[in-house]
């Protein structure tokens, strides 16, 4: 199972749950899931069928914290056999869907938690280092992590002691800490997509990816995505989920995009819905720094659009490159130079299926990204 979005635990205390789109860096607070005052880490995703978001299981002390992002619930329960007073870091749920493997400090055994029975069994010692999350590879089932201090790619083998093994040195840039008090220089969230592309997020919100689609061939260097995901200066503590792959490159180098609604009309048969017309104006400047003005030769616009039959986007000069899981991505065609600081309009028509639709569709999550 996989979704386009995965999940981030943000904040050392008063931890909040966020949805994260690794392709365009879209990060949104799941505001109906309550704050957890004591904080949680070592998070894993328990998938439960097509069309549903997973349950998220995490650990705080000797408690299992369970969150349902669909229903907006958070509960906790003491785990039988899990020691209290420990700080936990890594967590992921194995392919059986019920076993959450969690890791603390080097001299504390790892534990496998049965998230249904709320019981824990001790395992091997993890080994030293600053690796704060790991993820199971979808093809070979091995656990991968990244050492924050030096960027080494690690294999974490629960059957060995210590569990930590170095696969290749200095593959990733060293991790950075966030500006919050006590932040660690660690890769705090790790994810795979279904094909084996490996993504990691450090405490400061920098994102890197490494092509492990052939797990027997490890590239020399990972790629860091331009830009940083916005989490309001808080610390990324952990992550969970499996990514549905898309045929587009990730990018977070945002530029200004403004929306002007023009008109709407009923969609032509056989679609039941409405067609909305907009002018989207992109500007070769950063949305938060007016001095960040650089040429743009290729750009992408993305926004929310229901994943339903009949949903569509039409425009000239841009093409739809992906439409998945409630979001659409359109990219400029060819080399379209937009000089630094200048703007250009993009006229689009968006077909939204459904009934009782508003006169103006909001285009939630509208972003524009410089790709070249």
From TrEMBL:
InterPro entries: DUF6923, WD40/YVTN_repeat-like_dom_sf. It comes from the Bacteria. This is DUF6923 domain-containing protein. Residues 59-217 form the DUF6923 domain. It comes from Streptomyces phaeoluteigriseus. Gene3D superfamilies: YVTN repeat-like/Quinoprotein amine dehydrogenase. SUPFAM superfamilies: NHL repeat. Pfam families: DUF6923.
